[in-house]
């Protein structure tokens, strides 16, 4: 008797529907200001009559950070130093606040850089270009950041303006394509409510509402991870224990496999598949070219069959199972949809059709147990890879061909439903992210009136 109960996707759909909801206010539920005027700034549009617009440089000069040179000199660093050293990676990995970095500067190092104190606001102009951050620690910034020495405006409000990405319209796309410097940042115009109290109300409103949205996104992301775990467990169980919960089991004699149904047999992979190694240097002549980037991890899905790879390839035919041998990508495997060529580090397995179903093998080699086994035998330092000599001697449990086909059909159906549910949740998350951006933009430009909502 199996101790694993096969749960269908309907069980998870019920869980998804019953997942506790986080109430987020809708933009349509909020009032508008009584009267608007043209701001004269494209990204801002109309603003409330009492508001104004102001260039950043009118609020404070815009300055660049500075680095001690040469930066790799150890005299500039001290693990017990008072000021943390901010790298682009530290800001990229942070959300709104910078709370820690991996290095600290010595007294000499910090004297040659630009010091920032808790509450200070600065913006990246290199790497994650345009990313704003508020520091909660004493730190020093290099010339990949700009800062605002005389800024008196609420830094939280300024953070929301910049994190929307709207001020960068016309300057490029938020990220590495933006071209920012002290002049372009200084010339950015921002909307300005008439008093500090209203600014604070906007910040408090956005803190509350974005927190609710972020909580809901986090719950959905956790549910996606749960679905992926259940998908993996479903596959692993089906290809090892079968579909009949009442079948008698016997010890397989293989530690990573455990018990298998009576009637199944243990066979080395080399007796079920042949490794194909028919090379061609004319990959351009094939309409189907499959490389690592074409394969989705863990799902066995072919994202597309185009690659601009121009080196040698291995000829494949429909039904061949392709398995990547590089350690970081062992979770990439797929069935060839047609004749073509596999390029890069893909092993091509041609199955013995009287013994093995391609889809059954695909599900087997995508289990965490199989991948972990192969991973433990990879060799090399810079880019470890698996060898066919090891893989061909892996013993796997194999049922009769009709049972393989039944298992494959069952898993096709169940994983398709789980994948559909995951995709719907991902779309929901994207909609929430879009709504979050729209809410921030609406609040900081006065398109919605959030006054009086902070006590609700």
TrEMBL record:
Superkingdom as given in the UniProt entry: Archaea
Keywords: DNA-binding, Hydrolase, Restriction system
E.C. number: 3.1.21.3
Type I restriction modification DNA specificity domain: residues covered: 48-221, 262-431
GO biological-process terms attached to the record: DNA restriction-modification system
MF annotations from Gene Ontology: DNA binding; type I site-specific deoxyribonuclease activity
Coiled coil residues, start to end: none
InterPro entries: Restrct_endonuc_typeI_TRD, Restrct_endonuc_typeI_TRD_sf, Type-I_RE_S_subunit
Enzyme class: hydrolase
Gene3D superfamilies the UniProt entry points to: Bipartite methylase S protein (1.10.287.1120), DNA methylase specificity domains (3.90.220.20)
Protein family according to the UniProt entry: Belongs to the type-I restriction system S methylase family.
Stated name of the protein: Type I restriction-modification system, specificity subunit S
Native species: Methanosarcina mazei S-6
């Amino acid at each position: 008797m199996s101790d694993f109960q096969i749960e269908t996707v309907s069980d998870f759909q019920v869980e998804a529907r019953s997942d506790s909801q986080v109430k987020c206010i809708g933009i349509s539920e909020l009032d508008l200001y009584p009267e608007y005027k043209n701001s004269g700034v494209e990204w801002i549009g109309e603003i409330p009559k009492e508001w104004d617009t102001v260039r950043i440089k009118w609020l404070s000069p815009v300055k660049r950070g500075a680095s001690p040179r040469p930066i790799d000199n150890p005299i500039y660093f001290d693990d017990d130093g008072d000021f943390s050293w901010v790298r682009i990676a530290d800001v990229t990995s942070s959300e709104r606040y910078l709370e820690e970095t991996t290095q600290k500067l010595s007294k000499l190092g910090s004297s040659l850089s630009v010091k920032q104190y808790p509450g200070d606001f600065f913006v990246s102009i290199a790497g994650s270009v345009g990313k704003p951050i508020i520091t909660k620690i004493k730190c020093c910034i290099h010339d990949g950041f700009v800062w605002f020495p005389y800024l008196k405006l609420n830094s939280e409000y300024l953070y929301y303006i910049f994190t929307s990405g709207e001020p960068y319209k016309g300057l490029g796309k938020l990220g590495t394509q933006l071209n920012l410097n002290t002049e372009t940042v200084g010339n950015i115009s921002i909307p300005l409510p008439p008093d500090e109290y209203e600014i604070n109300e906007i910040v408090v409103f956005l803190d509350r509402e974005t927190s609710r949205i972020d909580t809901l996104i986090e719950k959905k992301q956790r549910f996606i991870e749960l679905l992926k775990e259940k998908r993996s467990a479903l596959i692993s169980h089906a290809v090892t224990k079968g579909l009949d919960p009442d079948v008698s089991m016997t010890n397989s004699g293989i530690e990573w496999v455990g018990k298998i149904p009576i009637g199944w047999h243990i066979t080395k992979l080399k007796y079920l598949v042949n490794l194909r190694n028919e090379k061609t240097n004319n990959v351009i002549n094939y309409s189907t070219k499959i490389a690592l980037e074409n394969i989705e991890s863990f799902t066995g899905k072919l994202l597309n069959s185009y690659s601009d790879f121009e080196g040698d390839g291995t000829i494949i035919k429909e039904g061949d199972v392709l398995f990547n041998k590089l350690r970081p990508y062992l979770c990439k495997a797929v069935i060839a949809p047609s004749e073509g060529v596999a390029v890069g580090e893909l092993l091509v397995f041609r199955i013995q059709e009287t013994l093995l179903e391609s889809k059954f093998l695909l599900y087997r080699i995508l289990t965490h147990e199989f991948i972990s086994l192969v991973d433990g035998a990879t060799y090399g330092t810079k880019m470890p890879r698996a060898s066919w000599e090891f893989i061909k001697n892996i013993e796997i449990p194999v049922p009769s061909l009709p049972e393989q086909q039944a298992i494959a059909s069952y898993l096709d159906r169940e994983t398709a439903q789980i994948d559909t549910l995951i995709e719907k949740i991902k779309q929901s998350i994207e909609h929430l992210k879009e709504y979050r951006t729209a809410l921030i933009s609406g609040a900081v430009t006065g398109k919605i009136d959030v006054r009086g909502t902070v006590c609700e």
